[in-house]
Amino acid sequence: MKTFLRAFWPACLFVVVIAVLAGTGYIAVTTNISTAGDWRTHAQANAQRPAGHPAKIRDTTVQALATAKRQAIATQRQHGIGLLRVPSQHIELTIFGTMTNTTLSLGVARYFPSRTMGDGNNVYAAHNLAAANLLLTRTAHLQHGAAITQTDFVHTYHYRVVYNRVVKATEVAVLKQTKEDRLTLIRCEGDVGTNFRRVIIARKTAVTPYVATPAAPHRLTQRLAPLVPVLLTPWFNLAVLLCFSGLLYLGSRRYRQLQEEHHENL
């Protein structure tokens, strides 16, 4: 065993390093982005900016999430309009004023840009990646009466959950404008291509002045997120395979050499 480790320790170390990088990268991609930063000072201006033409929305993938993470800070500065919090599920997400595949991958996106925050039916959507604990995934556990807040950094709007169900994608009545002030959260439910949506509706209960609270800082894993698209490229995978093969070849030569030395010493 000692001879094997002496010969193949570079290959073993290489495997450990790649495994740590892959694990850290996956955690980075499947962790919500930090809501800290100076983007909050642009929120009021972003909310008034025209949304432009709707983007074609596609099902998300790990690679798509990783690509979005590379643009997180810039996207928050350009499109961030507020903050959504679901305290019971430890959810804190950026609210984006424009709906694109990138904004749906980074937080919740405003479905109807013409609707003012806090008035009528504010509808927000987010991507959902099966088996990944991010964005609105944990809303499946929301109970009736659970608190939700949204803020534009001037006022904080408080809501209580009154509806949490899975519906067919064709059931669009929940998107309609209402006289009642409410918050509607939507995400896909199921695997890629699913025709089902989870819908959470919360009724507004109060409006209070915004009180600044410290946001979670950018973690090390989030700082590594921009590296993930590189890890997923065919060229990187080929380079890893070639390096590992080379280390195995050198290790096997070293192993034979050590065995020969051992036999000579007997």
Automatic annotation (TrEMBL):
GO molecular function, one term: cysteine-type peptidase activity
Active site: H127, C188
Signal peptide stretch: none
Regions crossing the membrane: 227-250
Recorded superkingdom: Bacteria
InterPro entries, per the entry: Sortase, Sortase_A, Sortase_dom-sf
GO biological process, one term: proteolysis
Keywords: Hydrolase, Membrane, Protease, Thiol protease, Transmembrane, Transmembrane helix
Protein name: Sortase
Source species: Lacticaseibacillus nasuensis JCM 17158
